[in-house]
Amino acid sequence: MYKRKALRGRLTALLTVFALLASLLPAMSASATDSGATVTASYTFFMDDVNQVKDGTISYADSPHNRWTAYQSPNATDWVQTDYGTATTRNKVSLAIYSDGGGVKAPSSYDVQYWNGSAWTSAANQSKSPAAPTGGQLNTVTFGSVTATKYRIVFTHASGAKSGVSEIAYDNDTSGGGTGNPPTGGTTSASYTFGQDSVAQVNDGIVSFTDTPRNRWTAYQSPNASDWVQTDFGASTTANTAKIYVYDDGGGVKAPASYDVQYWNGSAWASAASQVKSPAAPTGGQLNTVTFTPVAATKFRVVFTHASGAKSGVTEIAYENGSGGGTTNPPGGSYPQYQVSVISPSYGGTVNGTVTIKFYAPGMQNVWARAWHQPDASNGGANGYDKWFQRVTPDANGYGEVTLNASDYPTGPLTVILSAWDSPEGNPNYTQSDNCYLQLYNSGGVVWKRGIPAAPAQASGMSVLYQDDFTGSLSISQTGAGATYASHKPDSPGGSDFGDAIFADYESAYNPFTVLGGNFLRIRASKTPAGYVDPKGWNRTWFGGMLSSLRTDGTGVAATYGYFEARIQMPQGKGTWPAFWLMSQNSISQGVPSTAEIDTVEAYGHNAAGACQAKHWWAGSPEMHDTHCLPNGFGFGDMASTWHLYGTKITATDTIYYIDNVEVWRHATFDQAKTPMYFMINLALGGGWPVDLARYNNQVDMYVDYVRVFQ
């Protein structure tokens, strides 16, 4: 890790907004009508599909890959046409414009046209919102009502790029809120809004459950037990459905304990009648839908009763007047063949109680869902067991659902593995298989193996020098000044980085660290937002996280002839590079030119079953390097399915490595490793492997239960 330069991942999708449910966005339900139309284009990039502009799925990211683009087109303009085959009246079109910030950008302009029977004609009185074409969001055009068999959008490409869209939906909007469409406009306000959030973003058409883009309202730090978010339409508006996209970071912002949809009756707020909520309990990281008796009012609001020890948040709220028809599941055909793609709940989301996991697995005939379970009457082993809890055969489109009772599983990080094969259950002759690791945080469940245990045998005769079980606020700064930890490798005045991820700072807008449930440290790796410039000029497009027990001034926690141990649950995923490792303090505190490095564990996410240990004496006498890798390094589970203990004991003669208190490697202790050693825990990316986390919406998490040092 000290000197290696990892491969640079290719910039693919800079926008991480993933708005999967078309029913949220005005006029997107019109695509149900468009689904019977024929869609063509003047040019389509070979990896894209023009038919996906009418399938009801909106994705501004690479997973799912659902779009038309004119990338590599030789034309200055290109068009996408919708042919209804019969005379159809339209006065509005909504475009979900795709932009990756590179070869595909929002067009410089676009024009709505219709076929008048002999020629293409521009629609009259076009009014566009926003006025300038904007990528990564909905662009809406109203125009003079016209009846025609064919409509098209003509895109004039931006300089040096081509245009793209994820969805195009035409509508005949005579009421401003026809069946299934949310009332448009409205002014939002709230009883309290955290200073870094914006209540205006709850009706901007952007759904984001992550920090990039940061698009949400939260009541973080509110002094109130409950808070509300109001939408004032300014005129009487009928609604019978509210769609609430609940944000939950697992820390200070969580799904509310409860919520209530209310309307203004002219003199007071009243609860909407006959409210039916799905899911029944408020759930973060996904859509929460409420239907109620239709009511006409100028103002609606949602009152959130905050969960204990946290406040509420949402990324979008939309009111509708409709039948609730259609499906909230995107149609098949837009997901990778022979791969499990989870669409709900969101990766990294917080769950509790009964959870429905929705996924697509095109080409697969057999899917098993499993998760690590604490010991019980039927499986009494101390380390728990891999519980295969439900099997399902996907439908013809590859769609499937399984139900997880999260209350029956350990509190804290919970990884559900969806294992799939292209042969039926009982038939071992498969040719394709896949494992999808759905990382979740279980806010309920069973308390099991949490916190710092008794000292292990390998620490016999030693005393605890330092321990942290992350039950309070994290004390960390860029250099470690004024804090316990540094957020960078401390071998330069401002700290240094390595690999393909920028080690983001705790104080920054891209803070990767969160203490969840007052018990677990989460370190998150995620994609940088569009336009973000790598501060070191290395063209890195990812964030990761690092904590070091040594500050850049050479002070901090270090032990001579010590035992170092941490309990960690790591992420699976191509290019993830989590580690717990040690280096010599005197390289920094005394300026010794050589450096000892002891890698207690160095893991690579493409093989969750494997684990490596290593020793390095950089510029040593003699310089030495040795790596010990086990392709199947665990006595139970793998690095991502459950917790594991990783430890290193350094003595005057031997350095000994442990996984789950079992020795896995040892070697003679070289000279500089006999000096004080400090520890680092990081979620890096790369390490010589290409980074591809698209299937996980470009986000993975590493969890630390505790770290301790004996001497």
UniProtKB/TrEMBL annotation:
Gene3D superfamilies to which the protein is assigned, alphabetical: 2.60.120.200, Galactose-binding domain-like
Transmembrane segments annotated in the record for this chain: none
Presence of keyword Nucleotide-binding: no
Protein keywords: Hydrolase, Signal
InterPro entries hit by this protein: Beta-glucanase-like, ConA-like_dom_sf, Galactose-bd-like_sf, Glycosyl_Hydrlase_16
Record carries keyword Secreted: no
GO annotation (BP), single: carbohydrate metabolic process
Leader sequence residues: 1-32
GO molecular function terms attached to this record: hydrolase activity, hydrolyzing O-glycosyl compounds
Limits of the GH16 domain: 402-711
Matching PANTHER family: GLYCOSIDE HYDROLASE FAMILY 16 PROTEIN (PTHR10963:SF55), GLYCOSYL HYDROLASE-RELATED (PTHR10963)
Family, as annotated: Belongs to the glycosyl hydrolase 16 family.
Protein's name according to its UniProt entry: Family 16 glycosylhydrolase
